[in-house]
Amino acid sequence: MDNATTGLEVITLGTAAGPAIRSGAPGIATAVVVDGAHYLIDFGLGCTRQAQAAGLHGKDLRAAFVTHLHSDHVGELPAYLLWNWGAPVQGFERDVPIYGPGPDTSAMVSSILAAYDYDIRIRIVDEGRPDLRKIVRPVDIPLPADAAAGGPAHTPAMEPFMVYEDELVTVTAILVEHPPVFPAFAFRFDTRYGSVVISGDTTECSNVARLARGADLLVHEAVNLSFFAERDFSPEFLNHQQISHTTPPGVGRIATAAGVPHVVLSHLAGVATDDEWADGVRAEFAGKVTVAKPGQRFALSAQPAHT
Question: Which residues form a coiled coil (predicted)?
Answer without folding.
Answer: none
